[in-house]
Amino acid sequence: MRLISNFRIVFFLFFLCSSAVVQAQKDEKNVDYLVLMNADTLYGKISSVKDRKLKFENLQKEKLTFTPDQVFRAYWQSKKKVYAPSYVENGLDPVPGTSPQTYQVRKAQDLEPTFAEVLVDGEIMAYFVSELHFGGSGGMMIGSGGAAPMIGVGFTKSKYAYALKKATGEVIEINSNSSGLFSGNKKKRILTLGRLINDEPELFAEFEKEQKYNYDVFIKYIMRYNELQRAKESPLDSSRLFIY
């Protein structure tokens, strides 16, 4: 009887431990986390991400603020978004004589990275970055007291998508209707993506045969290219934390 009783106790403890592990794994999937540039990982809750500031509350309820040079990746689980520090928003120089237009990242000493939303992570990074456009307008405001000058100031926010190849520092814009991947000219679309993936000839040959070019097709080929490069990496390569 004592043996059976002990077995029940052991089984019960094993069940509790298993439940705790499952719950911890479930909770971890729902929590935000940061991978810092020193390779530490912090779990908690992201409250906001702006160009140069990320607000975060850790599991001890401490409110912390990080700048882009401190964070390698930020995983905002509830919004299903990933952010990384990048120079693509403020550091792009056009490469002369390229058509479609390509860019190089200018990493000057006074250039600071900003947080950019990551669309694809890997050897080829695809980012969303935002840009504010300020504008003003003038006119006359007419009321019961007569006419008076009126000046209106407003701004609009545009999002641009860029793909950056780490090995070359080459950057292409991928949401331009005139020169990017989704332009009306099929040859331009092939040229644009070809600049980034033509060192994988078989993959590029598949892309050339595509009949339609859209966002999903682009993401598919970038992800497949990154998988091919990841298979060639050594553990040392994947452990290096850089800002691009």
Question: What this model shows, in words?
Answer:
The protein is of the alpha+beta class and 244 residues long. 30% of the residues lie in helices and 38% in strands. It contains five helices and twelve strands. The protein has helices at residues 2-30, 186-197, 201-208, 215-232, 235-239, and strands spanning 32-36, 41-49, 54-58, 63-66, 71-76, 81-86, 92-94, 102-105, 114-120, 124-143, 146-165, 170-173. The N and C termini lie far apart (66 Å). The relative contact order is 0.11. Mean pLDDT is 78; it is low at 10-26 and 132-153.
Keywords:
244 residues, twelve-stranded antiparallel beta sheet
- Termini separation comes to 66 Å
Mean pLDDT: 78
Classify the beta-strand content into a percent band: 35-45%
**Main sheet?**
12 strands, antiparallel
- Principal-axes geometry comes out as globular
Number of strands: 12
Number of helices, counting only DSSP H or I runs of 4 residues or more: 5
Strand order of the largest sheet: 4-3-2-1-5-6-9-10-11-12-8-7
- What is the alpha-carbon Rg in Å? 25 Å
Query: What percentage of residues falls in helices of 4 or more residues?
Result: 25-40%
Helix and strand run: HEEEEEEEEEEEEHHHH
Query: Which residues form runs of ≥5 with pLDDT under 50?
Result: 10-26, 132-153
